[in-house]
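Quick one - inputs below.
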Amino acid sequence: MNTPTIGHEEWAVELEARRDWRRDRWGWLQHQARQAPSAALVGLPLALALALALLFGNDYILRVAGTACIYGVLAMGLTLVVGQAGLLDLGYVAYFGVGAYAYALLASPQLGLHTPIWLALPAAIGAAMAAGLLLGVPGLRLNDDYLGIVTLGFGQVIVLLALKLDRLALPWAGATLDLTGGPNGILGIDPPRLLGWAPATQGHWLLVLAATLLAVLALASRVVDAPLGQAWRALREDPLAAAAMGLPVTRLRLLAVSSGAAIAGLAGALFAGWQGAIFPVNLDLSLLLTLYAAILIGGLGSLPGALVGAALLAALPEILRDPALGRALVYGGGALALILWRRWPGAALLAAGGCGIAIAASLATQADVTLAGNLALVALPIVLAALPLVRRPWQRLGLQAFTLVLATFAWETRLAAEPGLARPLLLGVALIAMLIVRPHGLFGRQRVTVV
Amino acid sequence: MHAPLLQLQHINAHYGPIHVLKDLSLEVGAGEIVCLLGGNACGKSTTLKTILGLVTPSSGTIVFAGEPITGWSSSERIRRGIAVVPENRRLFGPLTVHENLLMGAYLRHDRRAIDEDLARIYARFPRLSERAGQPAQTLSGGEQQMLAVGRALMSRPKLLLLDEPSMGLAPQLVEQSFALLQMLSRQGVAVLVVEQNARVALQIAQRGYVLQTGRVVLEGAAAGLVANDQLRRAYLSRGSVIRFSPLGHGRAWRGHGRQSGERR
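Output:
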């Protein structure tokens, strides 16, 4: 990603401008964000959303909120490792898996163990940390992409182990042991029971998950502000200079990996208890991609960013499941984006007009427009590619209008009807747009190259 | 001469098959300024790295403040009072000026004394206190030099190592930063400065060593070295290796873990 290049004097001027926060569109929000402590900034909306979900939510909404909490915990752990310490850990989901399976083995009929929570949970976290250290020690000599490759492989090994350890040969007993249940997973996992109380409803579960989220947030934000967090960031920027300052590089890296792994292990154990079961499918690559998308959207290294990113990625696919909501989101978001980004109110009007025409047309005919929709889908990229080539203002405006109508038509006829196709597509487009407009994420610090 | 604070005795160092330091011995007394001169790739930076414990010598001993520190870790050595201003300064770019200074004191836990030292450094470099909350990469070259020295001083060193402090600085700033070294030395901090710019280094140093392909070929009082014909021919003549880096100070130090200064 290219970072903007600016000079010292320019930077000083920009600093003044940033201090004068009223001038900038984002300035007001950023100013407010800087004023408030990050825990309060995230805690308040979170508490509000939680209260709303608990008061008015049905089980479905509560489940989505619970997923957001799990994603949030995971994303915070990941952003510590990747964003703060700068270690590209692509095996992160493996620690989640180790935590989940460790808890499942200790508290399910699988091995006939029903360990109490105060023993099983620390054991699960410990197992995940051990896995982190196991990988961390040989990975210490690796940097950047190489570390990424090794950890990615490790993540796959854990999935394979989960799949294959259902027929573990025990030579001394002359039998095989079903440890992980293979693709069928482990079922009937006990919910965490503390002082005789165990979460029974989705509401209870959401309370448990949200409490965990807040605890992890409090802990992680303390670490980030502490000398440890500063040392991680220094290490991320320049390992050799950090070593020359006497920073214990090895210990700092191991600490980063193992604290990330501990957080992931905790999330895994809770997830297993919540779902009541754990399957190898839960550890697939899409979870890793979701988490990376969350911390990138939120801004690498930022804890509030990780939470907001996680909430968005948990909620958006669910919102897009409903064609009506999806429609509102696409048109509203599209028009807003055009106005804000391009400062182009004319285009927004055109978009509104175009979609009106398209909806009217599709309602009027009620015919099978699948073929036409497919054609529009094919034509759309071609028109988009042609767009930058046209230079004359009127031709350009015409083509832009045509593109908008075509896009609306394609959306109405094909994508809105098939959320399964539309959801990943829209998420991908949103992510790309996000990284173009704001490469440092919602809450991240912009990196500049000063010359 | 002062009692030696740092002694390198018959140090040999290798990078793989390459013999970099050959039977190198040198001394720095308490409060003394010593310069280490030499051309490209003659082992100057490696000497500093060996003193810091970033490079392990294959033989020889290092004695610091009366203790043999040869097998010690970098952290342990820095805790005992060795600090470095690395080549190209190598600040932590996106971290603020304040955070950079705190990194220099990472191994210390005396909060109050750290705060006092911070105040002292801000008083000495008012520019830094103006820019305390600003990312280090947005400082100008001279300010970055101040910050790098300030960061090193945050560990309360008895011995300050500097690797090419004049690199990429305007002549006026070079003068300033060498004047600063003289002041530190008067306050009792010993300084070992590695330089290609022999002319400036010999102006402030009391003694000097000249390295050639990893071997000390000349040593003695600075005044004597200035007068030495051999050195004059090799380093002080007009248009010779007195450096001018066409890249300036801008980019090289952003590299991750890359030793941009190590030219071989």
